[in-house]
Amino acid sequence: MRVTHLLAIGCLAGILSACASTPVTYNPAQSQAMNIARAGGIDFKLKDTELPRDTANGIVESSGYGLAMAASGYNAPIPGFSQFDMAGLNFASWLLSPGPQSSRNSLFAWMPKAYVKEGEEPVDKLADLLLAATGEVVEAMGYEAAKSIAKGGKDKSGLAVYFRVKGQPEDERCKNSPTRSTCWISFGLRDPRSIPMAPAFIGTTGEAYFFNPSSGVYSNYKFPRENTGLNELAFLQQLSAKLPEWVYFYAAPKRVKFDKESRLKIPVIINQGKVHYFVKPVSS
Fold first, then answer.
1. Residue 84 has what pLDDT?
2. The sheet that has 106-112: what strands, in order across it?
3. Of 35, 62, 161, 177, which has the fewest beta carbons less than 10 angstroms from its beta carbon?
4. Which residues pair with 175 in a beta bridge?
5. Residue 229: what pLDDT?
6. Helix, strand, or coil here: 220?
């Protein structure tokens, strides 16, 4: 069942700008991550951490997840950073207490209206993109991608892809059951709202269907509660590389895992195979 009426109720209740106009201007004084979060309406209580210009630029250019691991207490090397550089990073300042919208994982997108043909549903189009891209990543990891659609394949607002082990009952990370696996990712997609103009810096322009992450009812992704050893942030990075530029993942602090024990402790945005940090150069 679609949830457009719930979104309308959320707007009338004033749920933190869920139905406010989308920002369209890029602010060069903010990080790329903050600009994207602001465009999506999930920037409440998020803040950029100021670092020396060379360090901030190095983080932006690295675009990997090594810094996220290091900031979370993981002994991870970061390409282009020496031990001296690492010692100068104040990771404690990144450990934030974000607001409601920024304390949950979300999936958001500005789907161009031209991408959706007459008679098609935007949710179904996004679902098809996610299923295809997730299947490619899972297969590239050496598993069989077992795709599942809600209500016996009739409702694409609920999706899951299971990592099935090929040729053996289990491996060290993923275990098969008769129909599933202990490794999976699921997606809950909610109806977008129509907007006349997408922000110019998010990968498309013009009329779009906006999958709003700030709504009371919002699109999301989930991994199993009990991690079996998969690096979930690395998986999202690989998945995002196979999706259009206008699709984004937001990973909230403590909501994504690197392995069985370690959790991401800082907020990041993942897009086009890159991890965007809330980091900017020190103001002059």
1. 64
2. 193-195, 208-211, 106-112, 247-251, 268-271, 274-277
3. 177
4. 170
5. 86
6. strand
